[in-house]
Amino acid sequence: MVGSTSQNQSLGIAIIGAGIGGTATAVALGEAGFTVDGFEQASELREAGGAVVIREPSMALLGRWGVLDDLRPKMVEVSEVEVRDGRGSIFGSTPTAVEEGEAKSAYSVHRADLHYALASKMQRTRVHLGHRLASIENAPDHAEATFQNGRHI
Fold it and tell me: Against a cut of 0.70, is the pTM above it?
């Protein structure tokens, strides 16, 4: 634990971007007792693209955050990842185990399923949609963000 919950609640944290990375960061910080506001330029939370591969360290985090049970029915176990071009031809491949002694399997899930599962663990009132970042000013004890819609935090 970084600090006491009351100390963490007095520190406001803004995360710019509510994709998979921003949402996962918000869930982790929320679990540690921090107040978190996520700012996303899109008008709705959505994730485009294909599957992502989740290895063991991330599986443990998803379990701790209470996300894994929702995702398991949508996951497929994989031992190798193939990268394909637009025609479906294999461009390259790699095993999912990258270190000696590491579990040889990982799990693939569609990025939208992962994104929505993570977002379900955030308090929706803390996600601010339609906020495209215009600038950030750093000060010694804080940072200030200005969005194209005129909001300033």
Answer: yes
Q: Where are the domains of the chain?
A: 1-46+123-153, 48-121
How does DSSP classify residue 124?
Answer: G
Architecture label for domain 1-46+123-153: 3-Layer(bba) Sandwich (3.50)
Apex CA 117: angle with CA 15 and CA 56, to 5°? 90
CB within 8 Å of 153: residues ≥ 6 apart:
14, 37, 39, 144, 145
pLDDT of 138-152, one tens digit each? 999 889 999 999 999
Structure tokens at 82: 């193939």
pLDDT digits 0-9 by tens, 63-101: 999 999 989 999 999 888 888 888 888 988 877 776 676
DSSP single-letter state for residue 152: B
Dihedral sign of CA atoms 72, 75, 76, 78 in order: negative
